[in-house]
Amino acid sequence: MASTVLAQPAVAAEDELAKETSTLTVQDTSEAQLPPHRSHDPQYNMKRSDPFQFGSRYLQEEDNVFEFNAWDHVETDDAYKEYAEQQYEMQRQSPVSDFDKRRFNSDPAKFWNVFYKNNTANFFKNRKWLQQEFPVLDRVTQEDAGQITLLEVGAGAGNTAFPILAANKNPKLKVHACDYSKEAVKVMRNHEAYDTNVMQADVWDAAGEDLPPGLGENSVDVVLMVFIFSALSPAQWEQAVKNISRVLKPGGEVCFRDYGRGDLAQVRFKKGRYLEENFYLRGDGTRVYFFDKDELARIWTGAAFAKKENAAEDGRESMEPQPSSSLFDIEELGVDRRLLVNRARRLKMYRCWLQGRFRKK
Ligand SMILES: C[S@@+](CC[C@H](N)C(=O)[O-])C[C@H]1O[C@@H](n2cnc3c(N)ncnc32)[C@H](O)[C@@H]1O
């Protein structure tokens, strides 16, 4: 079973894999020598629809798993589940030291700054899947969509913001792209497509006390959060969700994608990386959490925090959250599972992401 797990990658490589393989088949260099696979020819590929639709390649009993390099919606097998549990136990036994916990939790933006200083190549990816996965992005970029304010939280190098602007036909769309790493904001501001008439990149801590520069309460139509919530510690979730709720208009929508529990990136963490349950320190000092679907729903509805508030008010633990704490309606929340196969090395890699749309009450 150990052969299914690859070495711990740097965050850049890991996130590239997470982001881009979520909709694209893996570009495995070890396969570059192989002739084009028949999966690319609709004549032979019964698993393929034309035009190609991601998410539709189901692995069935008669299939040879090593025939194609990615399969959709694949549940992990028992051997992998057992292996994952063993890994979690090993990780718990060797946590990050208290000294390092303080060091890495006290100023996490510092490590993202180093990340954006060091990784100047391969930043920009054309995320063609955005509009497909989040139809609201298609709607707000139509010519006649009217005045729209879109906020991207934890925008990084602008991998989401710039493709949206490239596809935009709405003259009244304004994109605010915020990140608490000043180096990330520099990268966005230096991008050739950066134009302050349509975009504003700012430093903003999503888990801080303030709203983003230039944005007031109830001023935003759509919030985008792509692999940012996992960078927060569990202690920051409540403040972040409340900030997003404050800045969104009633009825406004959050488009969310992030790591899911049991993802390969979680399972392969080695000793000395465990911060707390499902929360880890990467080799470059950045942090990452792996979410469970129900947990995420409790966070965004506010139920996860209602318990705490009730307990504080009553001086006892209340079992049921109060409806007054409800922040967002969960319009959609799905687990995106993918089995990636390295056919040359006969490795199986299970990826898992959560994707959802949450609407402010
Ligand atoms: C994995 S990267 C994702 C970047 C971008 N969303 C993407 O998908 O390419 C996580 C980003 O979240 C930012 N981030 C982490 N914590 C944050 C916070 N509290 N407030 C704002 N940005 C934060 C990091 O600086 C980093 O740019």
From TrEMBL:
The keyword Transferase applies. InterPro entries: Methyltransf_12 (IPR013217), METTL2/6/8-like (IPR026113), SAM-dependent_MTases_sf (IPR029063). The keyword Transferase applies. SUPFAM superfamilies: S-adenosyl-L-methionine-dependent methyltransferases. Its EC number is 2.1.1.-. Residues 151-253 form the Methyltransferase type domain. GO terms for biological process: methylation. Gene3D superfamilies: Vaccinia Virus protein VP39. One of its GO terms (molecular function) is tRNA (cytidine-3-)-methyltransferase activity. It holds the Pfam family Methyltransf_12. Residues 1-47 are annotated as: Disordered. Keywords: Methyltransferase, Transferase. Residues 20-32 have a biased composition (Polar residues). S-adenosyl-L-methionine-dependent methyltransferase. Belongs to the methyltransferase superfamily. METL family. This is tRNA N(3)-methylcytidine methyltransferase.
